[in-house]
Amino acid sequence: MMFKIYSNILIIITLFYGFIPFTVASSDCDTLSSFYSYLKGSLLEDFLLYKDCCNVVGITCNSSGYVTNIEIKNFENSDADFKTAIKVATGFTHLESLILTNNKSKNGVILPDEIGNFKKIKILNISSNKAEKDSVSTIPESIGDLETLEELDLSKNNLSGSIPNNIANLKNLKQLNLNGNSLSGTLPYTMKDLSNLQRLNLNGNDELKGYAPLLEHGHYCNYSGTNLCHLKSDDCSSGISGCTIQEIQMTNKENGAPEISTYESEVCENGDKTKTTAGGGIALLIFFLIMGYCFYRCCCRCCDCDRPTFSSKQFQTVNVNVNNTNNNSDNNPIPVITTTPVTTTTTATTATTVPPAAYIPPAVTNNTYIYGSVNNGSIINNNGETANQAPPPYTPDPNVSGLYAPPYMPAPAPAPVPVPVVPVQPPYTGYPSAPSAPSEGKF
């Protein structure tokens, strides 16, 4: 009897606990149904097609059936009410990530005051959402109640107003992105207490002013497009100049600093105040100087490409092997000179054709006679001998084995050749008369 009673109790307990996950999942699915009903349009239609809400696109559930992640991107519907939908989403007790990006509706995405009711949220990304008409939204004070939050991205949502002071309560916050909004005022003094904050992006909020907070573990900071300034010991100060004493005192009056003299020792010197802009300007100047120099060299090279450039050595060594059979009593070597430049941009060496002349050059031997350099107008050969002048240009000898190309000069006129006088013979008048016969008796 007792065994039967305990068996029944055990069965009841098992059934009860067995239905708990189903009951919880049904509760989250009901909440999700309400969430989509405010977004309407194709999202609601797609949701109704699924029997299990955990299979809906953009929805993630854990093993127990609790909704842990909601992601909606690139959705357009004029009638969508994102503000109320976010308020409904705070009813998910195990929700860790809510991502609403690149969506468009009549009023855009307005953050409700109930946004601080998320219990386990770690990632809250409500960014780049557009409105069909001008709408104004602010960052609710309740944002500071999200103690489990690690990543907060509210960029490009047309947010205005100031950053709430209790944002410093987000002790686990690692990334904060508020760029592309219209936030104004000074940054809360208590932001320095965000000890885990590593990335801070405030780019484009041109009405933010005062000094940026000193972040203990800040690795990336973007303050471009703002009127913020950085303190002297701030290592995360991209895009802004150093603070003056007046800027520090003004900030201390508005950001909740304990004293007006707070951070007065963090005044930047003149060099530090402009270190970011001056450094960038110097780097830019150096870059343009280098580019200008390269452009100048390229232009000069292009302009002078057809102009030969002569080196200091005006004559080039030429070896001449000759075999001249002409008879000449001088029997001296012919020195060969070439004015072909040693180094030219474009080299084109062609033998100059000299009109034939009745000039017989002196005999040339097989010796090599080289003119190597010029010293004070005198030509020095390879034997160290100095000639008073360069030898005359000779017409090419057909017996020379190597061709050389001296500059063309007409050969000297040949000496006149005397014409021998030939006596003129008298005209033929016939044979002479025969001699007369001797007289008889006379021998």
In short:
The chain has 443 residues and is of the alpha/beta class. It is built from 6 helices and 18 strands. It is elongated, with a radius of gyration of 53 Å.
Could you explain how this protein is built, in words?
Strand 16 (371-375) and strand 17 form a beta hairpin. With 443 residues, this protein is α/β, with parallel strands linked by helices. It is elongated, with a radius of gyration of 53 Å. Helix 1 (2-39) packs antiparallel against helix 2 (41-47). An eight-stranded mixed β-sheet has the order 1-2-3-5-8-10-12-14, covered by helices on one side. The relative contact order is 0.05. It has helices spanning 2-39, 41-47, 82-89, 245-254, 270-273, 275-303, and strands at 59-61, 67-73, 97-101, 104-105, 123-127, 130-131, 137-138, 151-153, 159-161, 175-177, 182-186, 199-201, 207-211, 220-222, 227-229, 371-375, 378-381, 386-387. It contains six helices and 18 strands. The chain folds into three domains: 30-266, Ribonuclease Inhibitor (Leucine-rich repeat, LRR (right-handed beta-alpha superhelix)); 269-303; 312-349 and 363-407, no CATH class.
Overall shape: it is elongated
Radius of gyration, rounded?
53 Å
> How would you classify the helix and strand content by structural class?
alpha/beta
Q: Main beta sheet, described?
A: 8 strands, mixed
User: β content, as a range?
Assistant: 5-15%
Strand element count: 18
Any idea how many domains?
A: 3
Q: N- to C-terminal separation? A: 210 Å
Query: What is the typical, i.e. mean, pLDDT?
Result: 75
Proportion in helices:
10-25%
Low-pLDDT residue intervals, each spanning 5 or more residues: 1-24, 271-279, 310-354, 364-380, 400-405
CATH superfamily of the largest domain: Ribonuclease Inhibitor
Strand order of the largest sheet: 1-2-3-5-8-10-12-14
CATH topology-level fold name of the largest domain:
Leucine-rich repeat, LRR (right-handed beta-alpha superhelix)
Put simply, the count of helices is 6
Order of helices and strands: HHEEHEEEEEEEEEEEEEHHHEEE
CATH-level-2 architecture of the largest domain = Alpha-Beta Horseshoe
Organism: Anaeromyces robustus
Protein name: L domain-like protein
Keywords: Membrane, Repeat, Signal, Transmembrane, Transmembrane helix
InterPro entries: Leu-rich_rpt, LRR-RLK, LRR_dom_sf, LRR_R13L4/SHOC2-like
